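pinning this so it doesn't scroll away 📌
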Amino acid sequence: MDRPSDCQISGGLRGAQQRRSHVRTGLLAAVCLTAVVAGCAGPAGPAAPKAAPAKADSAPVAEAPAAPAVEAGAAPGAAEAVDRGAARPPAAPPLLPGLARKEEETSSEAVARKEATVRSALETAQRWGLEQPPLKAPPRPATRAQLTPVQGVKLADGRPPVVYRVPTDDKVVFLTVDDGAEKDPEFSRMAEELGIPLSAFVSDYLVRENYGYFRGMHAQGVEINNHTINHRNLKVLDYETQRQEICSQQDQLEQQIGVRPRLFRPPYGEYNDDTLRAAASCGVQAVPLWNEEAFPDHMEWRYDDRKLHPGDIILTHFRGTDIWKASMPDLLRKVVNDVTAAGFSLGRLDDYL
C-alpha cells in the first residue's frame, strides 16, 4: 500500500480539528439555549458560571448608558428634563401619616366649633335684645383667696368677713339678686341661655310657696343663699332672735335646695356684731354686701366716681312689673349691657368667697 504523503496527513488533521470545533460549538449553543429557557420558565437556579473572556481579536461590545432614575409621582416630562440635564421638579408632598392627619382634622374641627360658638352667642344675644354678647368670665379660681383687711373687706376675730368688693385684679364683677318675690321663668331662662352667673339671696316668707323655682335655678348653677326667714332689720333685734332668723333659714334652704348656704346677706344691709356672731354659729363663712344697686333703667353707685371696679358686687332684686314697670329680663338686659360696655364680665360670687 502506498504511504500517504505529508500533505494528506496534514489536511486530515486539520479536518478532524475543524469537526471537533464544530461539535464543541454545537454543544455550547445547546447548553446556552437550555439555560435561557430554564430562566424564563421557572425560578432562577444557581448563578451561572462567568462567561469565558473574549478572545483578544474579538471587538469589545459597547454597553448602553444606564437611563437616569425618575422618582415616582414626578410630573410628566420629568424624564426628558433629566435626560437634558435640567434640575428635577420638586416632588409632591408626602401624605400625612395617620396620627398627623387626625390631629390636623381635629384642629380644623376645633376652629369650626369655635366659629359656630361665636355665631350662636351672637344670635342668642340678639334674640334677648343685647347690644353684644356678654364677655366671658375668667376661669374659676382653683381656691378661694384668703381675705385680708383691705378696702371693701372688714374682718373681726371669730366673725365671718363682711365684703363689699372682692379682692381681685380680674375685670370681673358679681351680680346678686335678693328677696325672691318675683319668680319669672323668662328671667331664669335668659340667664341660662346667655350663661350669666348669678348668686341669689332669698327670704323664706317670699319663696316658701314656690321653692321649685329656686331649685330649678340651682340646677342651672345659681347658688341659693341665706337672706333670713322674715326679712327683718336684724340690727334692732336681740342676739337670740337674730340667730333664729339666720339659722332657721339655713336649715330651710338645706332641706329645700339640698345645700347648706355658705353666704348670708342681712336684709337692707343692716347688721351689728350680734348678727355676725349669730351667722358664724350657723355655719356662715362670709357676708357679702354691695357697691352698686341695679334697676331696669339705671344704676345707683356707692362711690362718687360712678364706675365699676374689679371685684364690685352689684345688688338687684326679684321684682316684677307691678313694682318696677319693667320685667326681670329688662333688668338683666340693662345690667349686662352696662357691664359689657364698661369692659367687664360677670362672675359667680360663690366661686370667690
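📌 and the second one:
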Amino acid sequence: MATALAPDPAPEAVPAVLARGLCLARGAREVLSGLELRIAPGQVVGLFGSNGAGKTSLLQALAGLLPVRQGELRLHGGTPAQARRSIGYVAQGVPDGAYSRLRACDFVASAWQGERWGMSLSPSLRARRARAVARALEATAAAHLAQRGMDELSGGERQRVCIAQALVNPVRMLLLDEPLANLDPRSQRGVLDLVRELRERHGLTVLLSAHDINPLLGVMDRVLYLAGGRGRLGSVEEVIEPVALSALYGLPMRVARHDGYLFIHPARGFMAEEGGHCHHGDADSRAAQGPAREHEHEHHHAHGHQRAQDQAPGPAPAQRTGEDAP
C-alpha cells in the first residue's frame, strides 16, 4: 500500500514550476537570463548542460536557497519561500567527513521539521519523527539500511538514504542534483527506477540534473537544456536536435545516434574538456588544446563523440523516446 508523502495534487491547472524572464546570478556573474519555464505537476524533467551552465543554480533557486535576481519564479502558485517546505532537495555532494558514524536513520531524522532543529522534542514528537523516518526509508526501499552507518554504505545505497531525507517531510517536488554521479550502471538504474516509482505512486514533480542524457531517456517526460545563459524546455525531439542546440550554444551543433544512444557535439570538432567531465563546450577552446589533448580525450572518455561523428557526417535526428510529455 502506497505511503502518502505529499498532499494529494489538486486538480487545478496551476503549474508546478512557472518562470517568466528568470535571471539568476552568482555574485556579479549572471548565470541564467530570461529563462521561461512551465512544468506541469507530476512530470519528471531532466536538466542538462555543460559545467557552469546553471544547473545547480536553478535547482537551488527552486529550493529557495538562491535568490532570484530578476523576473518571476512561482512554485505551485507561490514564491520559493512560500513553497520551500513542500520541496525536497538533494545536493550534489557532501563534504568529506560529514557523515562520520551517523546512522542512516539519524541522517534522515536530522531533516524532520527543520525549523525545530536544536530543540528538545517531547515523547509524542519523537514518536512522530520516528514514524516519518520509517515511512521515508520505506518509500525509497532503504528500510534495511536504517541502522547502518552512512560511511559504510555504497554510493547507490547512500543516494537512496539522501532521497529519503528529502522525503521525510511532506513534499510535492523533489530536486536531485547529479544523483547518478559516480554510480555504476546498476546503481544508476536503481536510482532512476526509484524516481519513476515516486512519480507514479506519490505524484511528485521531479527535476534531476545529469551530464549524460542517455540513462534518462526512458524515465523523463521533458528535457530542460541550459547553455549560454539560456534554456529550452520541451520533449527530447524538440530540444535535442541540431537547430535548437545550435541556437542555445551559438555555434553549429550536431546530434547523432548509435545503438539507441544520443551524442551531442559541435559540427566541426570535439567538445572542450573541463573539470574531469566530457561535456559540451566551445570548439575554439578545443582547438587551443591541440591534437595531443584530443587524443587523450578520445581514450579516457567513453561518451563516443568521435565515433558518432564518424558515423554521422550530417545532422542526425534525435533518438525517439517512446512518449512525449503529457
